[in-house]
Amino acid sequence: MDQKIKNILDDLYRVDASLKKHETEIIKIINEYMQAKPATKFDEKFALKLRQVILERITGVKTKKERARPSALFPSGFDWLNRFAYVLGGMAIGLAIILPLVTVINKSNKNLAKSLNAPLISGGVKKLNQEAFGKISLNSSDSAALDSTTRGGSSGAVAAAQGLGGGSSESAKMMAPGVGGGLMPPRPVNYQYVYKGAEFTQDQSSLDVYKRVKGEFGSKGIAQYITGLNYDLINLAKFRTADTNLGNLTLTEDREFGYVVSLDMLNNTISVYANWNKWPRPDKDCSDEACFNSFRLKYEDIQSDDKIIAIANNFLKDYGVKMDNYGEPQVQNYWRQEYERAPDKTLVYIPDEMTVIYPLLINGEPVYDESGNPTGLTVGVNIRYNKGASISQIIPQNFVSSAYTAETDVSKILELAKKGGLYGEYQTDNSGEAVEIDLDTPKQVLMRYYAYDLNTGESNELYAPALIFPIANATSTTLYYRQNIIVPLVQEIINDLGGPVDILKSGASSPGSRAAGAETAEPVKDEVK
Amino acid sequence: MEIDDIKIVKMCQAGQLHEFGLLYDKYIRRIYDFIYYKTTHKETAEDLTSQTFIKALGKITTYDSGKGSFSSWLYQIARNTVIDFYRTKKRTLNIEDIWDLAEAKDVDRDIDTKMKLKTIEKYLAKLTSEQRDIIIMRVWQEMSYREIAEVLGKSEAACKIAFSRVINKLRQEMPVILLVYLLLFKL
How far is residue A385's CA from residue A255's CA, in Å, rounded to a whole number? Predict the structure, then answer.
């Protein structure tokens, strides 16, 4: 007997045992009904289509019937992404191209999208308990000293490479063809920082550290949609679990001067950059240096900073990029410094693209990176075509904050500044030329850094209070490129700093502590004030 | 991986509505089939299935896990959607699904399904809508009595009793069928 029928019979007999004597008839009836069960004509296409409708309702997207242009699935704060609606095939991630819908959708529940978006786009800072982030030093393993190779976060590695005022990094730059006017490698230089600013105090015993909160960014929902697609090449449905997220999404505009939009769903960042295949390259047919040189930009081709900023502003406005909580834009002019210092200016490479930086503001405080450079949203402006070429670091600005013990000993702060700030300064042996760098009066800012946890392998994006000491005489110093020295104010970060290795200095065999007044080989920890 | 309905629903209720997709994937086939059995028309079933899930999405915040499983809640919505549909069609009659309209000419039905159900159709038509739903859910969809009870808003015992009465009634109503069956297969 079929097990299903047996199960039904067992239930029946528990209720009415007298039915047992009619078992043969009952089996026939049940069998009859089982045989009569109709095929329901379930249509997978219908199911997929309805799924799409459901997803669109969740993200608050209007159907093609309701809006003239292709709809999109991005949260309301990123409506501008709808501009990038021309997706190249291949991935068939049809989020920017939405197929026409058959079913007319009920127009109620408009708050659904808002309730989904609110945690992501709302912005603002939520205050947590004191030291809620745990260890926030640059290297949160108790046993390891600072080691740049083990730190997570791309900017950590970048910061370690840039901003150092002397030594080998500068030599390499100067030797690069076309860069720096072809100077011979300079003699080693020891930069010595001298504070020339006004007296200042730091009286706050605790200061807020901020942590950027990363949301789900719609990655699960989109992953669910994608794993529902049928490619016939692989069963994507096998990946449709609650643990599946979309990591990255790229949209490509297949048109002249088109763009590529890259969404990092895990880190909640969006970037836009030129689809270079679709931007005209006047030198693309060149095969010799003379031809390439004929298309190189000249100094006089570069517009003023005001005009470059205006192009950047228009680009951002055109694509509806939210510009809340960004400071005044400034053009990064490192290439100008090189140009002005180069003996042979014809050899200096003038970039096609200028970078405009819009410093991030958190609770009104500007954010700098670990090298002391303003950081935030960056816009690339293509000088050749006077067009916006890229936008980087578009982020939802959701933060939490927590108070940490701050350094109030100004002498300790100044000691760190004189040693070159956060990462210090590599010092060669005493044969190196001594160059004095003047530091001006500091102002309080936030320093963005990545606290890497060796134990978990995770990197937390943190913004710690710091002092920025402007370099007062940078332009008059031939090879010095830094604009600021940055010194953190959180005691835990200061106490955990290793130091720059004193190359070739007699008696130096390991990184020394740069905590104020400490000359021991081991980093000072938990210094009591 | 088995989807934890309650966990997913709680996430939806917390604002993570995209998780609803998991519930949709789990129940779309079952709900569609259930509605099809009650309508026997593909396009109608698709339309009512769409309405069911959209209503469920809209009402997800009202679902109370203390009152029953998510699946039974979804079935209730589906059942009510079908009832509303047919009552809209035939306002003067107490119509709850296609079986109450078995003899009607002005309703859409799939011909092949109609033919397949021909043998039992008139017997199903004599049952109440609730009794038919018990047959559909128990025999065609192999749902447990607990689930059926939650959908119908009755106790498990009441559903078992109701089913046994349906079987008894069918046994009494279908002697000709049985006779033919017995003659054909000599059992």
Answer: 16
The model's pLDDT over B76-135, given as tens digits with 9 standing for 90+, comes to 999 999 988 887 766 555 567 777 665 555 566 777 777 777 777 777 778 888 888 998
Length of chain A: 529
- Contact residues, A window 89-108, toward B, CB-based 8 Å cutoff: 103, 105-106, 108
Residue A268: CB atoms within 10 A of its CB come to 20
Nearest residue of B to residue A28, measured between CA atoms: B178
Encode pLDDT of A464-509 as tens digits. Answer: 999 999 998 765 555 667 789 999 999 988 887 755 444 333 344 4
Q: Do A22 and B42 touch (CB under 8 A)?
A: no
Instruction: For A252-267, write each residue's pLDDT tens digit.
Output: 999 999 999 998 888 8
> B46, A228: Cβ pair inside 8 Å?
no
Among A403, A394, A393, CA closest to A464: A403
**DSSP 8-state secondary structure symbol assigned to residue A386:** T
pLDDT band at A454 (very low <50, low <70, confident <90, very high): low
CA distance A427 to chain B (A): 54
Contacts of A217 by beta carbon, 8 Å cutoff, 6+ apart: A120, A263, A265, A266, A268, A396
Give contacts of A119 with chain B, Cβ < 8 Å.
15
A265-275 pLDDT per residue, tens: 888 889 999 99
Q: Do B1 and A4 touch (CB under 8 A)?
A: no
Spell out a b/e string for A191-229, using b for 16 or more CB atoms within 10 Å of the CB, else e: bebebebeeeebeeebbbbbbbbbbbbbbbbbbbbbbbe
Q: Are strands A269-274 and A259-264 parallel, antiparallel or unpaired?
A: antiparallel
A247: nearest Cα among A278, A230, A231, A269: A269
What distance in Å separates the CA atoms of residue B98 and residue B37, rounded to the nearest whole number? 9
Query: Is the minimum CB–CB distance between B155 and chain A shorter than 8 Å?
Result: no
Contact A67/B at CB under 8 A = no
User: Which of A:413-472 have CB within 8 Å of B?
Assistant: none
User: Cα separations (Å) of A35 from A102, A398, A459, A512, B138?
Assistant: 34, 59, 60, 84, 14
A19 DSSP assignment = G
User: Closest to B113 (Cβ–Cβ): which among A30, A38, A216?
Assistant: A38
Judged against a pLDDT cut of 50, whether residue A72 lies above it is answered with no
CA-based end-to-end distance of chain B:
44
